[in-house]
Design brief:
1 helix, single chain, 81 residues, mainly beta, two-stranded antiparallel sheet, five-stranded mixed sheet
């Protein structure tokens, strides 16, 4: 039996959606895809109080903590009519 291999779960929020994830490092790309976003069009941003940490590189590894809150910034300009 491989009980020592069991992964703990953590909860993170992306645009107020709740996700149960394995307690391991994830890339910004993995989290954006999980949230249904296109990593080439969006930037993952960690909210910590009033601080915002942008992960401009989608392949950047993020050391997740239980309860982390992220928002997604869209890079494409808003069309002006």
């Amino acid at each position: 039996m491989e009980d020592h291999q069991s992964h703990h779960k953590i909860v993170v929020f992306i645009d107020q959606q709740k996700f149960d994830l394995e307690d391991r490092d994830h890339t910004a790309r993995e989290l954006l895809v999980l949230a249904g976003e296109d990593p080439t069009e969006t930037t993952l941003v960690l909210k910590h109080g009033n601080d915002l940490t942008k992960f401009e590189n989608p392949d950047e590894v993020i050391h997740l903590k239980n309860g982390d809150h992220f928002v997604v910034f869209h890079k494409s300009p808003t069309p002006v009519s």
